[in-house]
Structures are given as C-alpha cells and as structure tokens.
Amino acid sequence: MTDGFDDHTTAKAGEKMHTSDKSGIIDSMSDDVSQPKSPEAEVVGEPGLALARSQAKLAEMAGQHGDSPQSGRRVVFGLEDVSVSYSGTVAIRDVAFDIHENLATAFIGPSGCGKTTLLRSMNRMNDLIPGAEVAGKITYHGQDLFASGVDAVEVRRRIGMVFQRPNPFPKSIYDNVAFGLRIHGMKDDLKDRVEKALRNAALWDEVKDRLKDSALSLSGGQQQRLCIARALAIEPDVILMDEPASALDPVATLAIEDLVGSLKSDYTIVIVTHNMQQAARVADMTAFFSVDSDEAGNRSGVLVESGPTSDLFIRPSDPRTEAYVTGRFG
Ligand code: ADP
Q1: 22-30 contacts: CB < 8 A, separation 24 or more?
Q2: Euclidean distance between CA atoms 290 and 321, whole angstroms
Q3: What's the confidence (pLDDT) of residue 138?
Q4: Which residue's CA is minimally distant from atom 13 of ligand 1?
C-alpha cells in the first residue's frame, strides 16, 4: 500500500402528494416530484390539506433520525471548497461540509445540480472521466484524497460504489462476489468471504442453493443486492450509492432501503436520491443541492444546506430547501 491510510486498513472505521392518496397516506414509492397536485390540494389551496398531510408524513419520517445524529461521531469525509468541472465547465462549486461515520447521508436536489458528480469525486471515480477536474480539498479520515502518493485503486477499495442500474458481470453469482476478492489478492477463505458478503447484503438465503447460476438470472432487485455484496466483499469502509433503487420496483426498493438501515452500523453510507421520501426514510443526514448562477451568469450546482435530516425536512434554514421539500420547486 502506497498511501497514508494505514491506520484505517481494517477500520469499519417536494415530495408531491400521490394523486390517489386521499387519506394522507403517502404512496411510499411515489418519487415523481412533477406529479400534479391532488384535487384536494387544488381546492384547499397552497399548501393545501393534502400537501400538508404529506408534509406531515415526510416530517415524521425525517424526525425519526433524531436531532443531532452526528454528534460525537468521527468525520469520514471533509469537503472544503470543492468544485468539479468537466473540460472547464463547472458542474458544482464551492461545496463545504462533513460526512460522519456510521450514518447514512443523502444527497438530494433537482436533476443536474451535481449530486452524482460530487459522489464520484469522493472515491476518485472522476479520475476515469476525461476532462473531469476536482478543485478544493476532499479529505478521507483526515487524509487528502487527491494528494500525490494516494493510490486511487486503494481509495476505491476502501470507498465502494453502487450504481443506478445493477451491473453484475455475466458470470456466476459466486464469481461476481469473488471477483474483487481475487483482484485484490484476498483469496484466503474465499468461500467464507463470499458467503459473508451475500449475508450482509441480505441475499444469501435467496441464492445459497444456486451460487453457480448466472447473476443475470436474478431479478433486478437481487442483482442490485448482488452488486452491493460485491462491493462489501472487499471490506470497504464507505459505500457510495448513486440512486441505487431508481431502476427497481417498490418491493425491491424497500429491500434496498432496509439494507441501508442495517449496513450503516458497519459502514458509512452516502446515497444520492431524487426521492425525498427515500431520503427522509433512510438518511440520518441530508445535503440539499440546487443550481445557481455565479456573478458571470454561469449556472452550476451549489450546496444550499446540509445537516440532520430532521432539520432539512422540518426546519430548513434556507427558503430554497423549504420550497424543494414542500414540492413547490424541483
Ligand atoms: P445530478 O446527479 O444532480 O443529476 P450530475 O452530476 O449528473 O447531476 O450533472 C451535473 C452537471 O454536470 C450537468 O450539467 C451534467 O450535464 C454535467 N455532467 C455530468 N457528467 C458529465 C460528463 N461525464 N461530462 C460532461 N459533463 C457532465
């Protein structure tokens, strides 16, 4: 290992009303912020009874994470004036906040505000995109992620990533999970490691009798949990998830959300989602991004506010956050 991460080698270290929802019970999977308002909302007027009910539900979900879940926890990522550009065009600028250990942190905000771009910077995936450039500083357990001598491959082992669409390799279920272990030379106890990863991804019981079957024979939700198992197998510290459930059906989505809830006792999770209800359900901390123009009129993503999920959803400090979480913008 060539980097300075030795002390962490093994460390686990607007919402919209669903139109059919007359009772105020939100369709848990409705994530389309462009949904038209319910007839009640139209009649009662802004914010409207239905919207107010769905807001109350959202606030209740957000409130379950507590007022200051981050207190006393170590900082895993420190972002200082981070800007990311593609071939000179700034996609997101001047981002500064901390991400804490063993919590789930959600990135929310309208499409194009740079959530994925920022996420990809946090394990140096942007290194692989021609023209992508990160300015400012991102620290990981206090170490500058972009300092010379930091091994990007090792960074990506410690900081795993799960993508929007499940992307299993056209190999057996077993070989998918064993793949990273073999590449990283973690070949001792291979069978046990594969089983452990599949158990941690809540998939073992469904696949233990068909480990030699093709991963492509699994359902979409199972494939996504397999990709999570593949990421977990190489013993990361952090899992970055880029809209991991957006391509899945409601049941599979809930399974992924449950999994996030159980994984955070051992891992730090960062999850990009365009689904505010999902953020309210799973995230202890939330960062809200939006698109803004700089003095020269160039538009790029900015961090509007970050903090405990309950703060953002119940008592946002910025009117843009309030407009977004109440569904008036986005
Ligand atoms: P979000 O995840 O919030 O939808 P993205 O990070 O995907 O936002 O995109 C932010 C901005 O960066 C957009 O203007 C997008 O077009 C641009 N962008 C994203 N990926 C690339 C890329 N590989 N090359 C050039 N521009 C990109």
Answers
A1: 22/50, 24/50, 24/53, 24/54, 24/56, 24/57, 25/57, 26/54, 26/57, 26/58, 26/277, 28/250, 28/254, 28/277, 28/281, 29/250, 29/253, 30/277
A2: 9
A3: 98
A4: 112
Name which residue sits closest to atom 24 of ligand 1, judged by CA: 86
Q: Which amino acid makes up residue 186?
A: M
Is the Cβ atom of 93 under 6 angstroms away from ligand 1?
no
CA-based nearest residue to 103, from 138, 59, 65, 155: 65
Q: Which CATH class is domain 62-71+102-112+152-325?
A: alpha beta
pLDDT of residue 19: 33
Q: Express each pLDDT in 228-243 by its tens digit.
A: 999 999 999 999 999 9
User: Does the pLDDT at position 186 exceed 50?
Assistant: yes
Give the whole-angstrom CA distance, residue 51 versus residue 324.
13
Lateral strand order in the sheet of 159-162: 143-144, 132-140, 75-86, 89-100, 299-308, 285-293, 104-108, 268-272, 238-242, 159-162
- What is the pTM for the complete model shown? 0.84
Identify the DSSP state of 169. Answer: -
**How many Å lie between the centroid of ligand 1 and the Cα of residue 18?**
29
pLDDT digits (tens, 9 = 90+) for 152-174: 999 999 999 999 999 999 999 99
**Nearest 10 degrees: Cα torsion 63, 73, 83, 307:** 20
| Angle subtended at Cα 218 by Cα 217 and Cα 224, rounded to the nearest 5 degrees | 135
Angle (CA) 179 184 188, round 5°:
80
Write out pLDDT tens, residues 280-295.
999 999 999 999 998 8
